[in-house]
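Researcher: Re-running this chain for the archive, since the previous output was lost when a drive failed. Same request as before.
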Amino acid sequence: YCNHGNGLLAPVVDSSEVPVADRNHIPRPDLDGVLAEALSRNLRLLLVGDAGCGKSSGVVQFAARLGWPLRRVNLNGETGVSEFVGQWVVRGQDMHYQEGVLPQALRRGEILLLDEIDAAQPEVLFVLQAVLEGEALFLADTNSRIAPHPDFRVIATANSIGDDSGLYAGAKTPNAATLDRWDIVHRVGYPDAQAEAAMIARRSGINPATAQAVVGFFADLREAATRGDLTGPFSTRRALAFAGLLHRHCDPTLALRLALTDRLISDERSIVGEIAQRHFAQDPKDA
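Model: Regenerated structure tokens:
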């Protein structure tokens, strides 16, 4: 094991599943503190927040810094039990059992990152119940049990745990029993303005002043969405797309259309345009 401070020990492994560190990633102390607590104490962690606020990327980059192997799966409703747990497949003249992501992570002591668990099929959630309680996984197809490796961890992300905004069609509201199986439920917001501007400047290449203008612009968009004037979310991911278009010296009006307004209804396009004018007195691109 390797000590990474705060009493957190990560397994020393040689695995292709260890994420690649992103030099442009800016750690978030609030999220990193929760991750350190969950990983060090083997607590089941559910991260809840708007799309594009940095939930999954925060987990991936934390694992990269620790050198802890991570296996990521999107439970967007298309992932069934066969992909998640395993299935029999034909290889040549023989039948072989091909394990899914869950048993592989269990055996190898990896972090299992479950994206969009609020859109998962009920059958997948049912299989996950025993694992969330720390029990062995029973594979009915092979009549075998897989005990969790001591380094195995489970983290899930969700856009909501009860969507009253209408933004996440298809998201399911978990019942109390399902929520109770997660030791920690942590709501993840957008990064603070300074961190978000620094990340956008690094990733897009725009200058710091323009990055700050982009962040201020998106802060006002989010406030308008909270009031109900706009349909969000206006995520960090979307802010980065807008900034990237500006950096490539795209026409600013076209950049706004491509990144934002073409996905909105006409009334909302006008509101976004008015907010943009307040933040970009001149063309919103690098000088």
